[in-house]
Design a protein that fits this description.
Blueprint (H helix, E strand, L loop, with lengths): L1 H44 L6 H23 L5 E3 L9 H8 L27 E2 L18 H18 L7 H7 L13 H10 L20 H4 L9 E3 L5 H8 L4 E5 L4 H4 L1 E6 L9 E10 L5 E6 L11 E5 L14 E4 L1
Parallel strand pairs: 5-8
Antiparallel strand pairs: 1-5, 2-6, 3-9, 4-6, 4-9, 6-7, 7-8
């Protein structure tokens, strides 16, 4: 009896040791497979690191982000998905520092009293300014915090096409280089309203072809900026914390939007109607180019971003509509449009 008991105990211990070894082996095998995945990702996105130390650091961040994506996509259906995109080797802090750029203001800004769409009662059930030819192809701000310039330019491109019938890609670089008085500071951030004021003062904005984007701060080239491709007469604010007012405005033209895009879910967004956790600490700028409702009845805003076509839905994001008075992620807190 004692022999059999000892034999059984030995078998149990052996099985436990085998299980421990199996899990240890799984972990060892897991890293090589993830290393291969990281190498493939690097090749796909053209990523090169300066040395092995940086590569190891980026690999650890990559693994963490892969885990976040797989946990989200493998969990309950939240209506939107994440992906291991071109930003997957950046921490969320690094990503925000390099790809945002909306400047918060320490004091409330003067708000214009005019809102030309206040009495608009008839709004469409769906609007997509892309289908009306008022939206240029997705652009990419790169590692320059000038989302404010891209947002302002997209709104101006829209109203210019609506008024003239001509869709002209306008120059973000002119704003980055030349609009550097006070708040707007190129890759260090700025505000859409200030961009509109600058464009009005300069009597227009030149085309992208005349003054192309360089993904960095430069010296203002007054010769390139001398010939405007489009003009505006000013701008107006959408009443704050009012999605109905925002709807009235977007029915008539693309609108510049400030948003809290700080979460990793925004960084790694792939598709669907975004309803992720976010606050109202505005730090990024995008452009509302429409709205609609999904087949299951979910209302959404259609937003043009400036992170290239590999991000989101070919560069766009749909954000859940009618969530709170300030809008999901604060999208109804600071919206404006050129006139």
């Amino acid at each position: 009896m004692a022999y059999n008991h000892n034999k059984s105990l030995t078998i149990v211990i052996a099985l436990q040791l085998l299980a421990i070894a199996f899990h240890a082996t799984s972990r060892i095998l897991d890293d090589p497979s993830m290393l291969v995945r990281h190498e493939q990702w690097m090749t796909h996105h053209g990523r090169v690191y300066k040395d092995d130390k940086e590569k190891q650091q980026r690999f650890q961040i990559f693994k963490d982000n892969v885990a976040l994506v797989e946990a989200h996509n493998g969990g309950p259906d939240l209506g939107y998905t994440l992906e291991v995109n071109q930003f997957a080797d950046l921490t969320n802090e690094e990503f925000r520092a390099s790809h945002h750029g909306y400047k918060k203001q320490p004091l409330p800004r003067e708000v214009s009293s005019t809102f030309r769409y206040a009495n608009v009662s008839a709004v469409s059930s769906e609007v997509d300014w892309r289908k009306e030819g008022a939206v240029t192809p997705i652009k990419d701000q790169g590692e320059c915090g000038c989302c404010w310039a891209f947002s302002a330019v997209a709104a101006m491109e829209g109203i210019n096409q609506i008024k003239t019938g001509k869709l002209i890609s306008l120059s973000e670089q002119e704003l980055v280089d030349c609009d550097v008085d006070g708040i707007d500071q190129g890759c260090e951030g700025g505000l859409m309203e200030n961009a509109f004021q600058f464009i009005e003062k300069q009597k227009g904005l030149t085309s992208e072809s005349a003054y192309p984007y360089t993904e960095g701060d430069g010296v203002c080239n007054t010769k390139k900026a001398a010939i405007p491709a489009a003009t505006i007469s000013g701008y107006e604010k959408v009443p704050a914390n009012n999605e109905k007012a925002l709807l009235q405005a977007v029915t008539h033209q693309p609108v510049s939007i400030a948003i809290d895009a700080s979460g990793y879910a925004f960084q790694l967004y792939s598709g669907g109607v975004f309803s992720g956790a976010c606050g109202t600490d505005l730090d990024h700028a995008i452009t509302a180019v429409g709205y609609g409702t999904t087949t299951d009845g979910t209302k959404y805003w259609l937003m043009k971003n400036s992170w290239g076509t590999s991000w989101g839905e070919n560069g766009y994001i749909r954000i859940k509509r009618d969530v709170a008075k300030e809008g999901l992620c604060g999208i109804a807190m600071d919206a404006s449009y050129p006139i």
